[in-house]
């Protein structure tokens, strides 16, 4: 039998998200181009909303459920890995923000693939990156749907399928109806909920354990390796260093975060978001992973993805558990809605309008976009019905695939005049191909994560292709560099 005291606050939270979607849909209707409004929010995000939507999109089931679950097993070593993500907002907005925003406004881009089309003027690049985005987003969204449903099941006591239905329907409906603006506003709210949930959970776990001194003493007595950076050798140094690439530098290749650089209002908003984003990401990563690591010695006997839900139910009263489990739920929802809207944009804008029907009137475009977003959500929902085991590894696989596809064509296209379509094609093909080979055959040179050799191969291929292929035409150079 489920716990209705936990279920009711969660349902209220989902209803509020749905109401926001309807409200933003009404605000957006008739306020400009449907494409810009639905897929990029009219480029009107202020600093706080930009920071929170970037954080909420980057944070996910992996950050709030999977990662802390690993910290529960390994201790402080996994917290060290998680903290590598602290500069993500600063790095994304600092490196890409201003130039990406200027270029996207010049060419009317609403997706990263729009930018790649204008920079390289190549059909293969547009189609291949669109397909890569849809495939890897689908894998990541399946992980998020599983995380949301498992969280629901563990905390409320109701079935996994019931959780999947409630969570899936809520996210699909509010994303489909509200578009990017609803996603951005709900992400901002969800970011606040994440911060509050982290504070309450961290305070509750420390209090339940009798304070930090008592919990640390128990760790020293029972498992001293949990206090070491390598978890007593369970986390290798090369693996730690390669995480600086996977969830550090290479996040510049994640289209779900880089597209945020197209949607902010002005430079002041950008600079404010860089500061807010860095502080909030640091707090969330430290707080939630600390909950996991400390929780192993306060609420023992849990494992993996069930650790955070189990801790929450154990240390908080039912009503508070229902309210503050909305933190992990918010992280999951905000990742799904961003990927859902970008997958829809990729199909409609990058494939259908560019290489299908061409121009289409606003009314039909509106209807097709709604249908496409809904259908993608339903497909992901179906794949999540029979879940695989560990969320964090599915999520990291999707991250790696997106970075292999987008990192070098995005960065080098913005900052290297010599970058051309030959280099980008060679980078995409060798990057995605080598990532699959390294992942399938579990090839980890020197114990590093597969993303490191993947990006090295892709970079070499890009440079070779750039010098073998034709130089970029003068019109593109003028558009991107004003020369």
Q: What would you say this structure looks like, in words?
A:
With 483 residues, the protein is mostly helical. It has a single domain (4-399), classed as Sodium/glucose cotransporter (Up-down Bundle). 77% of the residues lie in helices and 0% in strands. It has 21 helices and no strands. The chain has helices at residues 4-28, 34-40, 47-58, 61-74, 76-82, 88-107, 112-120, 123-156, 160-208, 212-222, 237-246, 255-258, 267-295, 307-315, 318-324, 326-355, 362-383, 391-415, 421-440, 451-468, 474-481. Helix 4 packs across helix 16, helix 5 packs antiparallel against helix 13 (267-295) and helix 18 (391-415) packs antiparallel against helix 19 (421-440). The longest helix is centred in the middle third of the chain and has 49 residues, at 160-208. The mean pLDDT is 82.
| Shape label | globular
Taken in chain order, the helices and strands follow as HHHHHHHHHHHHHHHHHHHHH
Number of helices: 21
* CATH architecture designation: Up-down Bundle
Low-confidence stretches: none
Helix content: over 70%
Structural class: mainly alpha
N-C termini distance: 69 Å
- How many independent structural domains? 1
Helices and strands, with pairings:
Layout: H1 4-28, H2 34-40, H3 47-58, H4 61-74, H5 76-82, H6 88-107, H7 112-120, H8 123-156, H9 160-208, H10 212-222, H11 237-246, H12 255-258, H13 267-295, H14 307-315, H15 318-324, H16 326-355, H17 362-383, H18 391-415, H19 421-440, H20 451-468, H21 474-481
């Amino acid at each position: 039998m489920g716990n209705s005291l936990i279920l009711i606050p969660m349902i209220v939270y989902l209803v509020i998200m749905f109401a926001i979607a309807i409200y933003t849909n009404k605000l957006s209707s008739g306020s400009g181009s449907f494409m810009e409004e639905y897929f990029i929010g009219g480029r009107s995000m202020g600093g706080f909303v930009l920071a929170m939507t970037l954080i909420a999109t980057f944070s996910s089931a992996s950050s709030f459920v999977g990662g802390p679950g690993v910290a529960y097993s390994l201790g402080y070593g996994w917290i060290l890995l998680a903290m590598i993500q602290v500069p993500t907002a600063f790095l994304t907005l600092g490196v890409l923000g201003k130039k990406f925003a200027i270029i996207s406004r010049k060419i009317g881009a609403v997706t990263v693939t729009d930018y790649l089309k204008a920079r390289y003027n190549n059909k293969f690049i547009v189609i291949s990156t669109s397909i890569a985005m849809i495939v890897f987003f689908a894998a990541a969204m399946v992980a998020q749907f599983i995380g949301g449903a498992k969280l629901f099941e563990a905390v409320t006591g109701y079935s996994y399928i019931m959780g999947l239905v409630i969570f899936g329907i809520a996210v699909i409906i509010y994303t489909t109806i509200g578009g990017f603006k609803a996603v951005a506003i709900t992400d901002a709210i969800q970011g606040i909920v994440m911060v509050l949930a982290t504070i309450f959970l961290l305070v509750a776990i420390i209090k339940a354990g009798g304070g930090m001194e008592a919990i640390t003493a128990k760790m020293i007595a029972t498992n001293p390796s949990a206090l070491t950076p390598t978890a007593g050798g369970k986390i290798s140094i090369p693996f730690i260093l390669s995480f600086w690439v996977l969830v550090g530098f290479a996040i510049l290749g994640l289209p779900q975060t880089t597209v945020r650089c197209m949607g902010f209002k002005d430079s002041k908003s950008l600079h404010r978001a860089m500061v807010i984003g860095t502080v909030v990401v640091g707090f969330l990563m430290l707080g939630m992973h600390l909950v996991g690591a400390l929780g192993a010695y306060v609420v023992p006997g849990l494992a993996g993805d069930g650790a955070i839900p189990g801790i929450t139910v154990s240390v908080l009263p039912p009503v508070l558990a229902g309210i503050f489990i909305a933190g992990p739920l918010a992280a999951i929802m905000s990742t799904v809605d961003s990927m859902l809207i970008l997958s829809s944009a990729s199909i409609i804008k990058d494939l259908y309008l560019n290489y299908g029907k061409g121009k289409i009137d606003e009314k039909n475009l509106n209807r097709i976009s709604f249908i496409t977003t809904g259908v993608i959500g339903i497909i992901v929902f179906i794949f999540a019905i029979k879940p695989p085991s560990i969320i964090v590894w599915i999520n990291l696989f999707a991250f790696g695939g997106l970075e292999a596809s987008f990192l070098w064509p995005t960065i080098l296209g913005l900052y290297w005049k010599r970058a051309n379509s030959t280099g980008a094609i060679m980078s995409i093909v060798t990057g995605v191909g080598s990532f699959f080979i390294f992942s399938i055959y579990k090839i980890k040179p020197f114990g590093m994560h597969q993303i490191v050799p993947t990006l090295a191969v892709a970079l070499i291929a890009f440079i070779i292709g750039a010098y073998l292929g034709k130089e970029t035409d003068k019109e593109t150079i003028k558009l991107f560099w004003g020369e």
